[in-house]
Amino acid sequence: MLKELREIVQRVTASSDLDEAMSELVRKTRSAMQVDCCSIYLRRDLEQAYLLAATDGLALEAVGHAKIPLGEGIVGLIGEKEELINLADAQHHPKFKYLPEAHEDAFKSFLGAPIIHQRKTFGVLVVQQKEVRLFEEGEESFLVTLASQLATVIAHAEAKGNLKSPNWHGVLRGLAGSPGIAIGKAWVWRPRVELSQVTARKGDDPALQHARFDKVLVQVEEELDSMALRFKESQASESVAVFEVYQYILKDPVFIGLIREEIERGWIAGSAVKRVCEKQVAQFSTMSDPYLRERAADIRDLGQRLLTRLIHEDEGPLTPEEPIILVADEISATLIAEIPRGKLKGIVSAKGSINSHAAILARAMGIPAVMGIDHSFELLEDRTLIVDGYSGELLVEPIKSVLREYRRLMAEEAQMDELFATVRQERSQTLDGVSVSLLLNAGLSADTDIAMNDAADGVGLFRTEIPFMMRDRFPSELEQAANYRRVLTSYQGKPVCMRTLDVGGDKQLPYFPIVEENPFLGWRGIRLTLDHPEIFLVQLKAMLRASEGLDNLSVMLPMVGNLDEVRAARRLLDRAWREVSAETAAHQGTIRYPSLGVMIEVPSLLYQLPELAPLVDFWSVGTNDLTQYLLAVDRNNGRVADIYDAMHPAVLRALQQIIDAARRYAKPVSICGELAGDPVGVLVLMAMGYRRFSMNNSNIMRIKYVVRQSRTDELQKVLQEALSHQHTGAFKGVFGRYLEERGLGGLMRAGR
C-alpha cells in the first residue's frame, strides 16, 4: 500500500482547495484500503461538535449537516483521547452514536484516527466496513499517516480561509524577529523580477552583454553606497555592515567572474546572473546552520536587484504615502533600506528567520519584525495589523480594546528605550560592584559593524567561515590576514576571540563538497581542519600575521569532543607561531603567542573538564549547540522547536558544572550562545557565577542596563529559590519576577 499512500499524500498536499482535498482523500482512501466507507469529521468549536465534512460511503446530503457533539459518540471519544480506536463492531460500543441522516446502518467495523496538528485536534478520519472484523496493524498505520498529512493541509487552509473573510480578526503566529510593537496598515510588496521567473536564453554578442552587465554593476553599486551612507548618517549607523556584505559580493572577483564566464558561454547578461545566483542560493539554502542558510536570501536579493536593472532600467524608489507595515514573501535588507525610515513601522515576512539580514537589520534599527508567517499575503493588503515582535504574533484587524492596550504598551516601550540609551558609555557593573564583560558575537553580517560598536568590551566570537563560503577556492593566507587585521585593528586594546574554521557537514563549501547522512554529527569544525592541516595552518598563520603589534588575539576551537583534538591543534598552533615569528623577526615585528580556548558545545567535553583545563587557556560555552545536543532537539525544526529550552534543568546543571570547574581550575569562561543576550538568561548565569557574555550587537545595551540594575548577592538568593521548584519553567518565572520588580518586565514582553 506504500505506492497508494504516496499517491494520496501527493494529491492531497498539492490541492489548493480544502473541500477538494478532503473529497479526494476519502475517495482514494476507500479505494486503497478496500473498505465500504471513508469519512472526515472536522471539529467546530463554536458549535461544540464534529461536523461531517467529507465522505465516500455515507449519504452525501449529510455532508455539512450531520454533527456529533464534542465528547459524544466514538468520533468524540477519539478526539477526547487523541488516539486511534479500532472496533470490530462499533454499534455495540457504549459510546456509539447513530447518525440517521448519514444512513450508516449497514456499517459494523470502525477504524478512526485523530487529525492533530501541533497538539491541536482538527478532527477525525474514519473508515468503516459492513463486515464485522478488526482492522489490521498495517491498516492502522496507513490511516494514522493519512490523518497526519491531512492535519497540515487543514491547518494551512483554516488560516487562509480566515483571512479571506473581510471581517475576520485574529492572530497568526510566526517567529519573533525583532522586539517591539508596531501598529499600521499592511503594505504588501512583490518583486518586479524574480530569479525563478526569468527564462534563460542565449545571445550572439558577448561584448554587448558584458557592456550591459558593467553598466548595471555600477548602478547597483551606487545604490548600495547610497543606502550605506543613509544609515551612517542616521541613528542606525551600526547597520552599515549589512550593505558591506552586498558590496563584498558585488566586488568579489569570483562571483563576478562566474557571471562573466556564463556570458562568454553565450548566455545573455540576465540569464548569466540567474544561473550563477540560483546555484549559490541552492548551495546556501541546504545548510542547516541558520546563520549561513540565511545568506541565500542575500544572494537572491542581489541577483534580483541586478536583474531588475537589466530588465527595468527606470526602476524608481519605493515611496509609500503613509507609514506602513511592510509585508512580503521574503524581505531583504536592501528592501528595508529603500523605504524612508519615517514610513516603516514594522516588518512581516513569510520566509526568513531570526538570523536573516532583514531581522538583524530590523533589530539594529529598532523596527518590530515577525518572520515565518506562512500565509497568502495578498489577503492582508491594506488591513490593520499589530506586529508583536516579542511573541512573534501578527494580529489582524484587532478589536478596539486590543488596539488601546497595545498603544499603551508602545508608550511604555518608548520610555524604556530612553533608559537603555543612558548607560551606553557607563561601565558594565552591578549595583554591588561586580564587573561584567559584554562582548560581541561577530562575523560578516549586520551584527558586525566592528568599528562603530564602542559599547562592547571586545569580540567574544568572531566567525571566520563566511569568506571561505563566498569563493570558488580556499582564500589565501594574505587574503585571510587582511580580513582579520581589519577586525583586530578596530578593537585595538580590547580582546578579539576568533573561532577557527567551522565548516563541513552542514556548511558546505562549493569547492569542497561533503555528503553525509547526519551533518550535525558529522565531519565538521575541528574534525575537518585537523584532517586537513594544510588548511588549518594557513588560517592560524593568517590570524597570527594579522595580530602583529596588536596583542589582542585569542583563538578558539569549535566542535571539540576529545582531548586529542586539543593537543593536535596546540601542536599546529605552535608550528604556525614559530614560522610566522621567524618571518616577522626580519623586520623587527613581534607576534605574541595567543590564548587558546575551546567552545564547549559537545556534551562529551562536560566529563573531561579536569583533563581539559591544563591544555587550554579559556573556555567558551556555545549554549545553542550545547542545548540542541543535550536535548536532541533541532530548534530550527518547527515540529520540535517548542521543546528547545536553553533553561531546561539538564542545560542549567551543565552550565553550573562548567562554571564550578572554571573556578576550581582558574579558567576564564564566557557564554557566547543566545542565552547570553537574553535578559532572564543573563541573570541566571550571573547568579551561577558567569561574568563574561558575548552576544549580538542588538542586545548589548539592554543587557548592560539589566546588569547595572542587579545585585549578585540578590541573584544568588533568587537562584536558590528557583532551584527549590520542581517544574521546568521555574527559572523563567522566578528570575522574570526579579526583572518585573525593577520595572523591567518589558524586556520579556511588550510594555514596561
Give the strand line-up of the largest sheet: 7-14-13-9-10-11-12-8
The CATH class of the largest domain is identified as Alpha Beta
- Give the amount of beta strand, in percent: 15-25%
Characterize the overall form: globular
CATH T-level fold name of the largest domain: TIM Barrel
- Tally the structural domains: 4
- Provide mean pLDDT, rounded: 84
* Number of extended strands: 22
Low-confidence stretches: 234-238, 444-452
The percentage helix is 40-55%
**Main sheet properties:** 8 strands, mixed
Cα separation of the termini: 58 Å
Helix/strand class: alpha/beta
Keywords: Cytoplasm, Kinase, Magnesium, Metal-binding, Phosphotransferase system, Pyruvate, Sugar transport, Transferase, Transport
Family: Belongs to the PEP-utilizing enzyme family.
Pfam families: GAF, PEP-utilisers_N, PEP-utilizers, PEP-utilizers_C
Subcellular location: Cytoplasm
Please describe what this structure looks like:
- The protein is of the alpha/beta class and 752 residues long.
- The protein folds into 4 domains: 1-160, 2-Layer Sandwich (Beta-Lactamase), CATH 3.30.450; 170-188 and 318-398, Phosphohistidine domain (Glucose Oxidase, domain 1, 3-Layer(bba) Sandwich); 206-311, PtsI, HPr-binding domain (Enzyme I, Chain A, domain 2, Orthogonal Bundle); 416-748, Alpha-Beta Barrel (TIM Barrel).
- It is globular and about 100 Å long.
- The chain starts with a helix and ends in an 11-residue tail after the last helix.
- Mean pLDDT is 84; it is low at 234-238 and 444-452.
